[in-house]
TrEMBL record:
It comes from Branchiostoma floridae (Florida lancelet). It holds the Pfam family Acetyltransf_1. Keywords: Acyltransferase, Transferase. Residues 14-28 have a biased composition (Pro residues). GO terms for molecular function: glucosamine 6-phosphate N-acetyltransferase activity. CDD domains: NAT_SF. This is Uncharacterized protein LOC118422663. GO terms for biological process: UDP-N-acetylglucosamine biosynthetic process. InterPro entries: Acyl_CoA_acyltransferase (IPR016181), GNAT_dom (IPR000182), YpeA/RimI_acetyltransf (IPR050680).
């Protein structure tokens, strides 16, 4: 008697399992959220930039002009929608707590800086300092396949709660989404944030004990380039 084994089984080619689904850091429910920049974040991002980098801004425009630097920065960022895509905003319990700017290869958008406007907020002396600062920090080119953490700042009242780490995790995620294989940043050698970056897996790949121009423009010339493979 012939046995009925049913239809022949066709061997399936081996397929690797799909990679585990990874939600973007800051997208899960909880007190800490990370989202893209929106129009109502302009003032916060400007204040964050100036306050988080107060040593550089004080050196550039003078201590008495810091509020003018925030206003100038907000005004120019407000006009420059073409750079908003770079920013991620960290929210803590619904309040703006931190900001980070990422740049990828080929992103050459520039903020709309207007000298006359800067003069009205900062005077001639402060504007000159700001232009020098801009020249010294804007020169980083981003090689193909890499992501540059242009700047990261957390409001002083929110520091030490893991917000910086969450933003750095988000930077890794976004960089991978863009197909990058490494991510890098520049940091002042004496900045405590070096510890955070080391914990996040970054290593020092370049030490710069820079030129007189850097010292004059930034108030410091001693920086590390730190990089991480993704
Ligand atoms: C660096 C910074 C973004 C970290 O944000 P955060 O939410 O406090 O970070 P986390 O809570 O995830 O991690 C704590 C780590 O942040 C760093 N950090 C904390 N306060 C800092 C400060 N005032 N300045 C610099 N780094 C600081 C330290 O590495 C700290 O770890 P440690 O206590 O072991 O030294 C934030 O402190 C900041 O805005 N600092 C001023 C701006 C700045 O220096 N930005 C980096 C320039 S490259």
């Amino acid at each position: 008697m012939a046995l009925d084994y049913g239809p022949p089984v066709v061997a399936q080619p081996f397929l690797p399992p799909p990679p585990p689904y990874q939600p973007a850091p800051g997208s899960e429910p909880g007190p800490l959220q990370v989202r893209n920049m929106e129009a109502h974040d302009v003032d916060f991002v400007a204040r964050m930039l100036v306050e988080a980098f107060s040593d550089k801004f004080e050196h550039a425009v003078g201590k008495s002009r810091m509020e003018g630097a925030v206003k100038q920065s907000a005004s120019s960022l407000g006009r420059s929608r073409n750079v908003w895509h770079r920013y991620r905003i960290a929210m803590y319990e619904g309040r703006q707590a931190g900001a980070m700017a990422l740049r990828f290869h080929g992103d050459s958008a520039e903020e709309d800086f207007q000298c006359g406007e800067a003069c009205s907020y900062l005077g001639c002396w402060g504007t000159r300092g700001l232009i020098c600062l801009g020249c010294a920090v804007d020169g980083t080119s981003v090689p193909m396949g890499q992501c540059y953490v242009d700047h990261i700042g957390v409001d002083a009242s929110f520091r030490g709660r893991g917000i910086g780490k969450m933003l750095m995790d988000r930077a890794d995620y976004d960089a991978r989404q863009h197909g990058c294989t490494s991510i890098f940043l520049w940091v002042k050698q004496s900045n405590r944030a070096v510890h955070l970056y080391e914990r996040q897996g970054y290593g020092i790949t370049e030490t710069v004990n820079g030129s007189c121009f850097m010292r004059c423009a930034l108030g410091s010339a001693d920086f590390y380039k730190m990089q991480k493979q993704l």
